[in-house]
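Closing statement on the NAP sub-project.
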Amino acid sequence: MNILVTGISKGLGLEITRHLLESGNNIFGISRNQTEELSTLLNTHKNLNWLQYDLADSTNVKTKVFNEFIGNTPLHAFINNAAVAYDDLITNLNDEPLLSMYRVNVFTPMHIVKYCIRNMLLHNTKGSIIHISSISAHTGYKGLAMYASTKGALEAFSKNTAREWGEKGIRSNCLVVGFMETDMSSTLTPEQKNRIFQRTSLKKPVDPRSVAETVSFLTSEKSNSITGQNIFIDNGTI
Ligand SMILES: NC(=O)c1ccc[n+]([C@@H]2O[C@H](COP(=O)([O-])OP(=O)(O)OC[C@H]3O[C@@H](n4cnc5c(N)ncnc54)[C@H](OP(=O)(O)O)[C@@H]3O)[C@@H](O)[C@H]2O)c1
């Protein structure tokens, strides 16, 4: 399968990319930086293609991502993984960082979905779209209201995409992920992390491999009756 994945330079996106490559998929990956881990993957896997692109730019999605990078390749799946977190109290809200986060987390992914669906229709592909959401959109967490609102937007967008394109066999689902140990969460203190773990049944961080396995399942034919869903991978958050 040919799969477009955003945010492949580190964290969950890197894990998803590794997993999908090992299952023999062709990956079209996007990030701003080429980390050491990504360089290693690029050197060892011919089936990995990388585009350096800043997702804050929604205006060049058609030309740079679809015309120049994907070209005539039929896409079978899109994994909307890249995101940034503008975490602060609502009383400190500033327009510029809020807009910038919305561009990366919501606006550009919506443009990518637009062209993914056009690609899938052109090639008659029953494609799978997967958004990485966050448990914070459901449970709430002090300081994450603005970030969580971007994930709520994606969840609504995903459900409606599923409804709009289901008759063509195109599916759309969200993975609602709990706390993982990545760069995004690295500013939390051990006490804050412990408080998060105490709210889960399994009392530990989410394993990115568990998310990557679910992504793999959702891209495959095995999941062909699943669409419009939010699938929780959150260690059983209470
Ligand atoms: N960590 C958690 O606890 C947690 C919990 C629930 C959900 N999530 C979600 O899981 C997903 C992955 O997060 P993570 O924890 O793996 O975060 P991360 O370690 O910070 O990685 C984020 C990835 O997104 C890419 N990215 C960010 N801004 C970009 C931009 N403007 N243009 C292109 N690429 C960009 C980064 O690449 P470059 O910096 O190289 O561009 C990086 O590869 C996100 O959707 C996040 O909201 C995370």
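The mean pLDDT is 97. With this model delivered, the sub-project is considered complete and its resources will be redirected to Aim 3.
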